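Morning run. Coffee first, then this:
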Amino acid sequence: MAHGQWEQLPPLPEPNGGFIGGHHNGKIVIVGGTNWEGGRKNWLRKIRKFDPMSNAWVTTENFENPVAYAVSMQNGSQLAFVGGTDGKQPLRVHATLSGVKTVLPALPVSTVLAAGGNMGGWMILAGGTDDAANLPGVTRMTHAIMSGDVKRLADHPGKPFATAASAVAGEELFVFGGMNYDAAAKLPVNSAEAYAFSLGKNAWRKLTPLAAPTRGLSAVTLDDNHIYIAGGYRDDFTSEAVIYDVKSDSYRKAVSLPYAAMVGLVKMGDHVYCLGGEDKKQSRTDKFFRIPVAQLLK
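And here it is:
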């Protein structure tokens, strides 16, 4: 069934948001995540895979513990994650789907709801907090991880932040929007700021800000020059989307998401997949759609 230009796919096995999302060996994968039931927040540990060939979800196994709000690290066809939380404590780990887990004692605990991505084998993390409920604990720190080594890099030049969208294009990590914390008002404040980080230069540069301050938005790289940025929360959840042009440092309106939420976005092959997410306070959705990359680039 079509939803605008999006094709609706079989729903996720359960409503889910905050999961590790990506692709592995030709299948869409989600690991862990969260949902709500009867006012109680559940922390998930299942590994789910969607096979586009059979158009069906399968549950492969349980991860060793619940995990959510980590940074997904896609390296070619391999999916891994860094940090996150099991709902009780932050995780100082780097783990892969093949079962390899590296404990990183030097990794700070502020990896929950951080931004990041894989850059030439280095895993870059920026911002974040130590608990999804600890909004005053957001940070500006940036770190690089490779082979178990953790290196402190140049701090993000904006305000301490979490729940920003991030994507790697070319030789830089791009970070858009997110949430800052107003200590005087004791409230989260949505951000429109945008920055790019160069690992080679160990430096951040300021970009043109988003048109609307938004937290919990998602981003996915379409090609070397275009990043699709969508969803999130403003005064309410939104489905609006833009495409950021890396070369011109500009945005243009893009095909909206098929629903309003803080979604997961994954590019695999010629499609972008939109998965689940937080669609209302204390709520998650099981919706699942995809769209050809070519449609987004029109």
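The mean pLDDT is 95. Good start to the day.
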